[in-house]
Amino acid sequence: MKQKIKNFFRDFFIYFFNTPVFPSLVLICSVFMLAVTADEPVRAKYSYQISALQYARSTSFPVYSAELTTESAETTATAEIPVCDTVPYYTEPVTETETTTTAITTVPETTTFCTNTSTASATTAEISYQPPVYDYNSLVSAFSPNYSYYLDRMVVVGDSIASGFNVCGYIPYEHNLAQESMAIWNMYNYGFDIGGGYMGVLEAAAYAYSPLYYVSIGMNDIFGMTPNEYAWEMRSIVEYIQAYVPTATIVVGAITPVSAYNYYTTNDVLIEFNNALEWVINDMADSHVIYFNANDALCDHSTMTLSWDFAGEDGLHLNAGAYNHLLNCLFNYLDMTPALEQMQKHEESLWSDWW
């Protein structure tokens, strides 16, 4: 009996592979089934009709936080949109996109604070937080009185550019969750031991339980993702950290600019990715999640490239002075937000849990 079975399979495979029609049919059917059954990247929990990519393509540089209003099927409210009476708007005109389920109104921000405001009504999901307008020329002119407080607590998550905060001596090893060549698409291949044993980067971020995180990653993702995909993946990183450290303040840093002579990419590409990131992060309307335009802080606005004062040898990475400049801009900006109060409450909660 066994010999008959062996002979059957032997004769079958000889006949199968000697006839080219059958292997071809199997290959075609396999490809067809793969195409039919493959899952599509659907974000069911987000009902927006406008994508971050559309926002990025409609926004010029430099970009300041645009105010977006959306209408959902479940909740509506009336939002007050500040309109400057004394300071002219940026040259980008107001644009509106309407669909049957979503209404989007984009109002370009001014480069200075509004002194007078009027109101405009829009049907929208309630917006609980709006980021402040900022000007880096003013932010770098002063030294934040909370500089040491922020720096001593900041945990950095990101790529080789983000790792420069540790390499240049600004943050300790235990606060560094950044590494060369790390990207969103491969970040789960990296691990860190910051005192609790070897674990993945996001698990380590949760373990750190810091009051302040700085997340900056993406230079290694621009060839494998669209700006829209990149922005939503960054938001998923933020949401992961929030799930484990709900009282933390999470700063999302824009991809930094590159020099004109660099070999890797162009600033036009980076700006499109950053614009999408800004929209998606600010859309969270959460004071615990802050978009920080690191690109604008390091950019030479006369050339729209990385300032030579901050450029590394390859025109892609940053020198030590760039990190000092970034920290000064960042911490002065945080002083304009609820970050300090939120961080203090975070630490107070740790003490109350301890006792």
Provide a descriptive summary of the structure in words.
The protein is of the alpha/beta class. It has two domains: 66-130, no CATH class; 136-354, SGNH hydrolase (Rossmann fold), CATH 3.40.50. It has helices spanning 2-18, 21-37, 52-57, 136-139, 147-153, 160-167, 201-208, 227-244, 267-282, 294-298, 320-334, 339-354, and strands at 77-78, 83-84, 95-98, 103-106, 117-118, 123-124, 154-158, 176-178, 191-192, 199-200, 212-216, 249-253, 289-292, 299-300, 305-306. A five-stranded parallel β-sheet has the order 8-7-11-12-13, sandwiched between helices. Strand 12, helix 9 and strand 13 (289-292) form a beta-alpha-beta unit. The longest helix has 18 residues, at 227-244. The chain starts with a helix and ends with a helix.
Features:
355 residues, alpha/beta, Rossmann fold, 2 domains, two-stranded antiparallel ribbon, 15 strands, elongated
Trace the largest sheet across and list its strands: 8-7-11-12-13
Quaternary structure annotation = single chain
- The percentage helix is 25-40%
Count of the separate structural domains: 2
Order of helices and strands: HHHEEEEEEHHEHEEEHEHEHEHEEHH
Compact overview of the structure:
The protein is an alpha/beta fold and 355 residues long. The protein is built from twelve helices and 15 strands.
